[in-house]
Design brief:
Number of domains: 3
Organism: Phototrophicus methaneseepsis
Structural class: alpha/beta
Protein name: ParB/Sulfiredoxin domain-containing protein
Number of strands: 5
Number of helices: 19
Helix content: 55-70%
InterPro entries: Chromosome_partition/occlusion
Shape: globular
GO biological process, one term: chromosome segregation
Largest sheet: 5 strands, mixed
Strand content: 5-15%
Low-confidence stretches: 1-30, 391-396
Radius of gyration: 28 Å
Distance between the termini: 87 Å
Strand order of the largest sheet: 1-5-3-4-2
Length: 396
């Protein structure tokens, strides 16, 4: 039995390809300290900093804030998917119903699956594969045990983790031993770069997930502390002020970990973090392209959300979105053109927050008028006008 178990472990190790391990890290995985274990599912936890999110943000925050168990998180996700499905006229009670009937052509005219339905569908599909064929690729986990308390944090393979919970708690007829096969990595050997290589090597990484990935690597190389629990977008926005200039020794490693990304592309993905939280969540859920999101960065938060909702509802291409924004801009300009040119210039200055200080305005008036008394009279006129407008606005 021992020999057979050793052969199984060896085959699992051999099945881990160079792409999964990130190329240059292959030597690391040949280390004698590497081991494959079947670990109790309750001892494994997803990485809250993993840029490739599985759970929607609301459930993510509750789960990593220890306000939900894995089963409760999945139940909440399934209920959200059920609500979306009912609204589209395709209700389901059993998660297996999401896989559909291949002989049924009646659902062809229904709208596409919502993001939550698609997520549950993919997890159920993966769960059935694990049930029928076993988990071919073990989950990669970091040993974060402290003292006698054993604990493991997922580095890659979070979908397999959730699919296993789904299989155990929501698909009847499956008898589980409560264990999950894992490649165990010592805590001191954990690598955000290896995680990034795995994320970018696989398909399906959204542009917002890539923005989080870029931010996480920049924060890592600049020595920012890494939290142990749930994080919001403000955590990643810290990277907006960071770049590779002061850390040139990490440039090649960072760009290669991001799938050979160019510096210009890195900056574009990072700039997406300027979007408001609601816009980021919408873009992430619906997997909107970076080229679409780049067009709305200059908009106010409320406008960002409204434009994204239209983009999602009508499945706009980049050109259609560009034309829509240009049309709105032209209509705004037509309204503005009715006003005197100097008023338009003044309001633009005020909107940009570039108003000069009073002493600068005074010196400019003196230079233009060539007379101190005339300049002072104009300033007094502006002051009286401003005071009058404030009084009127208070009365209204």
């Amino acid at each position: 039995m021992t020999r057979k178990k050793r052969e199984i472990n060896t085959s699992l190790l051999d099945s881990v390809t160079a792409d999964m391990l990130g190329g240059d890290d292959i030597d690391f995985f040949q280390d004698d300290t590497l081991r494959v274990e079947r670990i109790l599912l309750e001892l494994v936890r997803p990485d809250p900093l993993q840029p490739r999110r599985v759970l929607p943000d609301r459930i993510y925050q509750a789960f990593h804030g220890n306000r939900m168990t894995p089963t409760q998180a999945l139940r909440d996700l399934i209920q959200t998917a059920q609500l979306a499905a009912r609204q589209q006229g395709r209700p389901f009670n059993n998660v297996l119903d999401l896989l559909g009937n291949p002989d049924d052509d009646g659902e062809q005219d229904l709208p596409p699956l919502s993001p939550e339905e698609q997520l549950v569908h993919d997890l159920v599909n993966l769960a059935i594969t694990i049930r029928d064929d076993g988990q071919v690729n073990p989950t990669t986990v970091v040993d974060v045990s402290e003292g006698v308390t054993r604990q493991f944090r997922i580095e890659t393979g979070e979908r397999r983790y959730w699919a296993t919970w789904l299989l155990r708690d929501f698909i009847s007829g499956y008898e589980s031993d409560g264990m999950i096969p894992c490649i165990v990595i010592p805590h001191e050997s954990a690598s955000a770069f290896r995680q990034a290589k795995e994320n970018t090597a696989r398909s399906g990484l959204s542009s917002i997930a890539m923005a989080r990935q870029v931010a996480l690597l920049l924060l890592q190389i600049h020595g920012y502390p890494m939290p142990d629990g749930a994080v919001g977008y403000d955590f990643y926005r810290q990277a907006l002020d960071l770049d590779l200039r002061g850390k040139r020794e990490f440039t090649t490693l960072v760009l290669s970990s991001l799938g050979g990304l160019h510096k210009r592309q890195l900056s574009r993905y990072k700039s997406l973090l300027k979007l408001c939280d609601e816009a980021l969540e919408l873009a992430d859920r619906h997997n909107l392209d970076e080229s679409h999101l780049r067009l709305i960065l200059h908009l106010e938060p409320a406008d960002q959300v409204e434009v994204l909702r239209q983009c999602i509802a009508f499945n706009l291409t980049r050109k259609q979105l560009h034309d829509l924004l240009e049309k709105n801009h032209e209509e705004d300009d037509k309204d503005v053109e009715k006003l005197p040119k100097h008023v338009i210039q003044l309001t633009r200055i005020m909107k940009n927050g570039n108003m000069p200080d009073p002493s600068t305005i005074a010196r400019a008036l003196v230079n233009q008028e060539g007379n101190t008394n005339i300049a002072r009279a104009r300033l007094q006129t502006y002051a009286r006008f401003y005071k009058k407008q404030r009084i009127i606005s208070k009365i209204r």
